[in-house]
Amino acid sequence: MAIAHSHRFTEGDLPVEAGRYRLVASGSCPWSRRVLIARRLLGLTEAIPVSWCYGRGVDGFWELTGPDGEPGPDPALGNATSIAEVYAGTPGYTPPPTVPALVDTTTGHVVVDDSGDLLFDLATAWKPLHRAGAPDLYPLDRRNSTDAWDKWIGEHINQAHATATHSKNAEEAAAAADGVLVAFDVVDTLLARATKMEASREAALTVQDVPPLSAVVSVEQFLCGAAPTGSDIRLFTTVQAYEYGGRAYYPGGEAPSISFWPALARWFRALEGRVGWVGTEERSALGL
Mind naming one GO cellular-component term on file for this protein (predicted)? Predict the structure, then answer.
């Protein structure tokens, strides 16, 4: 992470306060998209406004946009033109700067740059500001399952996909890509079993570390039951990144479409069609 200490919305740390923070995000970044989805689903769009990044600037980092939506100074962030300028005054900052970044507008400092922590905190600590009827993305009675899925998805899919598409080491990239495809086999098999579909890739359960039992027994239509949770969000944005461009950069040529995994594809399309799961900015960035 770019800052030495990514803060949390806990007692003695960051206070929950509408309008105090600003999210810097890009619709083309899967780590940003997980936070953007939670922000919409929970009704926090007014409480936490967004500054958008659309591309890389002359410094090689994400460039900010002005009120007209074009690259330029962002008045909400002290007229900074680059994400690097936003991070520059933050204690403990080490380049490169990343998104998503949550900025405390009272200090101008980046206070959170861990998207997983921010997703969880928005779903839990920010509950007093949730819209009426907002989903419970981390229900207490499913916490063992969400914790297990979050850890497994992070290791076997999220980080592995990033390595497969960005590593300069060919062997490392190829091993990571293979790991993602086998992990998709695992998820497809578990979803198929839970939804009475034919489980056609069960062999994957013997060649990779499967999720802990607390995760496996929770699978229904979604990873942790009959309703989507934060774990589904974490998987969704990486499957989305894979399907809409990322698989073309896998070693050895373009990897298969998610239609290769019928149960995983059905899960993905069901979420993709739900209100709030794909915003206007993400659609534009992904070419949808």
Answer: cytoplasm
